[in-house]
Amino acid sequence: MDYLKTVVPSQLIAERGSNLVVINPGSANIRIGLAQHDTPLNIPHCIARRTSQVPKRNVVDQMLNSQVTTSQHVERERAYDVIASLMKIPFLDEEVANNSFPRKMGRVDAFNQQNSRKDVAFSWTNVYEKEPMPSTALESSSSMNHGIIKESMGQHRNTDIKELNSSERKFREFICGEEALRVSPTEPYCIHRPIRRGHLNISQHYPMQQVLEDLYAIWDWILTEKLHIPRSERNLYSAILVLPESFDNREIKEMLSIVLRDLRFASAVVHQEGLAAVFGNGLSTACVVNMGAQVTSVICVEDGVALPNTEKTLPFGGEDISRCLLWTQRHHQTWPQIRTDILTKAMDLLMLNRIKESYCEIKEGEIDAVAVVHSYEDGMPPGSHKTRLIALNVPPMGLFYPKLLVPDVYPPPPRSWFNDYEDMLEDTWHTDFPRRSDISDNFYPGINVGLPMWESYPVLTTKPKKEEKIGLAEAVTSSILSTGRIDLQRKLFCSIQLIGGVALTGGLIPAVEERVLHAIPSNEAIDMVEVLQSRTNPTYVSWKGGAVLGILDFGRDAWIHREDWIRNGIHIGSGRKYKDSYFLQAQAMCYINS
């Protein structure tokens, strides 16, 4: 403890962070990097695998149900009108009727000057392997031979070059990251996203074994190609898994197996994403609102300990705002007459995400902008279309009125997959609500959180994890009020922390403060709501917190070693006990506050 008070932070990070790899996987992106780095790599969490022929579907998820029902369409239009009245803009039908009238665009030019890169089109990925030019090899070979051999080489030079050129057309077996999203639909590839809506993306079209193989391939590619950590050296490194609250026991166990058994890290520990976010911002108590691409979660943390009964999971995120943006513009007939389909063309989703991040904000009044929309037809160069986008403050308000977003409906994984008969979890499947002390003492020695995060996991329900059908303001209010103590509630309402990519949306902080304050019941003695400003990029807060926890964990009592995991797993009664993290959290608080 004295060492923590006197050591220079940069020295501590350099000493202890050089062999710690922090992995924070999400549904759309994975944040990964060495703990000593200031920021991680942020890479799309997907892989495009080559198929033997042009596939019937180029995105594995496109066969899943994504149709909007009539009732959902009516509810969406009703939600739009509610938002329109709040934002003081015309209602949906009024917008269509008045669409031909010009609008004032005074602020758009200045906005475009600051965001010029958003007008640049994405390019298709080169799907062929890179081969060395044959001429150098031929010349160096001929220079070492005598005249007769030189003459023979010269006679066959043209034939050899043709053969080598043909070999250059060899397809890459798989492509990861953003390059995978930019693969043309005409190429013989199928895009896989191993995590979807906060769970492993298992379906009848995407078996469990393939999901796990894809996770391994993506992570191994990043470690080798981006972080330059070959497999032969990974036994010198340890991994910190910072996992979202939406994952259940079996999913966490499979990821640990990938990290320890397949990627060959020497040891690993699991931290809860919400808890890590608190440490990433140097706090001890906060209501953490994690707004990712496909899932939004809320959880309260008190004195560095996550409170599991406060957890809320909402099945929508930034990608749903992007889809809503497309629906809004098409409804107002402001979108160009092009084939934009984010379900079958991943490039269109990249474009919509960039437009959303550049133009959407929460602000009263009519907000419109001139933007360049690109069309990506099969294998053709992208086309550019300059258009006027309107009602740009409506899509992000879907966070508070989720019926506007109409999330895609994905069937849950088969229930048989969640039946885990190994010792680590077998006793938990016979009880709907396992007793916390039993789980914390016996089953989770590698999960270093103040309390286990899956208390209310219902085994026999139709979904792996309960999802709330409410808006963001109601979820935050319900989460904080569930603590049951007025002093803690007041503290949490004034310590709301927004993290995730959606947290960068302009005007979101005052909107959250206003909507949450209005959602508090009138009989509660609470009259103040405050969202704390993030000390770092909200997208990377959880990753940074995982790095801090890993660096300050001197005892490493809760870490799992590779040999132990492969040989025995975690067995009931094996003597491996869950180590409470109070001492570690006290170390972190001392370091942060010193």
TrEMBL record:
> This chain belongs to which protein, by name?
Actin-related protein 9
- Please name one Pfam family that this protein belongs to: Actin
* PANTHER family tied to this protein: ACTIN (PTHR11937)
The family database entries (SMART domains) matched by this protein are listed as: ACTIN
Question: Source species, please?
Answer: Citrus sinensis
Entry superkingdom: Eukaryota
Taxonomic classification:
Eukaryota, Viridiplantae, Streptophyta, Embryophyta, Tracheophyta
- Name the Gene3D superfamilies for this protein: 3.30.420.40, Actin, Chain A, domain 4
Which family is annotated?
Belongs to the actin family. ARP8 subfamily.
